[in-house]
Amino acid sequence: MEYFVQQLVNGLTLGSIYGMIAIGYTMVYGIIGMINFAHGDIFMLGGFAALIVFLLLTTFIAGVPVVLALLIMMVVGMLTAALWNWTIERVAYRPLRGSFRLAPLITAIGMSIVLSNFIQVTQGPRNKPIPPLVSSVYDLFGISVSLKQIIIVVITAILLSVFWYIVNRTPLGRAQRATEQDRKMAALLGVDVDRTISVTFIMGAALAAVAGAMYLMYYGVVVFTDGFAPGVKAFTAAVLGGIGSLPGAVLGGLLIGLIESLWSAYFTIDYKDVATFSILAIVLIFKPSGILGRPEVEKV
Questions:
Q1: What's the whole-model pTM score?
Q2: pLDDT the model gives residue 32
Q3: Rounded to whole angstroms, how far apart are CA atoms 281 and 274?
Q4: Distance CA 253, CA 291 (A)
Q5: Nearest to 221 by CA among 84, 153, 123, 294
Q6: Helix, strand or coil, per DSSP, at residue 222
């Protein structure tokens, strides 16, 4: 039982990272019906931004507190990723918004390749490790819970609450929901649709950057290929939880993390991805809109 609970803790930690990335997927898809496949690379970019900030802090400021270092890493990562995602939306996606449906998808895949190769060229192809930022471990009834696991879960819960409040209780959220329902009618009623979509891309990128900083803190290493696998799994989490639903994105991320952790613990690690996508297929067969998703209503 202790081993099982330990794997639950590990799965919740990993799932929290997937959930933060998945929110960006679900927000963009909910508003413009587009899958931003460059979002995983924005997550990776946030991790590299956090790495560079950490190296600069440790080089020029001796004895900087860990809490302050983590806060600066997250803030700079959020700003960097937000600027990149805003630029991508403005330059690559917006001109194709009225084009045929495959054009934005192909462009998103192209932007993913561009970002990945850009980081490979500028930062090198090797793994970039850092020393442990947070090393405290607590023993609770025979279960090891590290402080960095607690930090990741708490930050995920706080950010989900903040973004849920923004979407459901603020004028920006009302503009986002109006744009999601009908862009033309929202524009006629005074909503700045272009601005709303850009802000949504910025919000998703900021969350992905936080996930990137948490990923770097948790694993202590980042490489230019890290955007692909977590990005695909986060997209899977968004679909599993119900794409378009913020709580669904986090729930899907937690489920993906738990499936991976438990499968790796009790079966072979080689097939953990097979187990993850098999569960997704089974859920979608019986509930095509996802666990918390709402069935789409055709406009007539």
A1: 0.90
A2: 78
A3: 11
A4: 12
A5: 123
A6: strand
